[in-house]
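Appendix B. Raw example, untouched.
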Amino acid sequence: MRIAIIGAGIAGLTAAGVLKAAGHQPVIFDKGRGPGGRSVSKRTDHGGIDLGLPYFTARDPAFRQTVDQWIEAGVVAPWSVEPRVLPEQQPARPQARLVAVPRMSALARHLAEGLDLHCSVQVSEITRELTGWVLRERQGESLGEFDGLILTAPAPQSQSLLAEPCPRLAARAATARMQPCWAVGLVLEAPLELGFDAGFPSSGPLGWIARSGSRPERPHLPEIWLLHATAAWSEANIEWSQDAVGEWLTQAFADLINRHPVVTERFVHRWRFARARDALKAEGGYLESEDILCAGDWVSDGTLEGAWQSGRAAAHRLLSRVGAASPVDG
């Protein structure tokens, strides 16, 4: 069975892996230049800079087992960090935090190995024909016919694609409102002696900061700090220029640490759909109407773990529909 998967984030890649293991032919389409969604990294002269997902956690036993396999494969490592609440310097809630190595995009590339993945392709229309699902790109050219369909794109994009073929699912996607996030990477002239490597600012425009070199297999020099604005600040200033955002958040960082570091380079990225404000927490981990399935972090609980669970659940549901035996997860 040939199955189209729209979105090459963790949910889409996980679903594709399950379907391929069951002997089917998943084909993944993503408008980005590479797989991973918000877990991608920006390539620079200083190595990959993680301007997206800062880390992830593993609570479910099945997911922890999969994470152990990723660690054994050398694509994930624990991040031994003790973030502070700033500027109070109080310890944040302890958690076992995990990151992909040597950059966050390594996990998606690992999951994409051996899959039929088409990046830089924006699906603009899906229609139900007598022979199956037909996908078309922005210029109207057909991307092929498929026996099954799983959407794992962010909720607003899924809503747009589903408006005509499945208004019921489009309405559900509309309720999963997404939050934006402005992210900045600061390359400093000299290291900072701060006494902490990461923190959650309790006020102001910043919601998260971290020293990149404290993460496993990242270079310590030059020192790079990763800054994430709060969802509220990002939404209020979503149309600002990158230069304006970079200057504002750099000053906020300086005010927070009460220092004025010399910045030699600055990288800025806008995530319009960074995380779900109202994740649906759908029963079963997926949405379904007739023969369309939706999966992703916005369908589950907004986390990378939730995206993995959702993608896996949608794939198993599709397998059950065609009478296939559900394989053991890899």
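End of appendix B.
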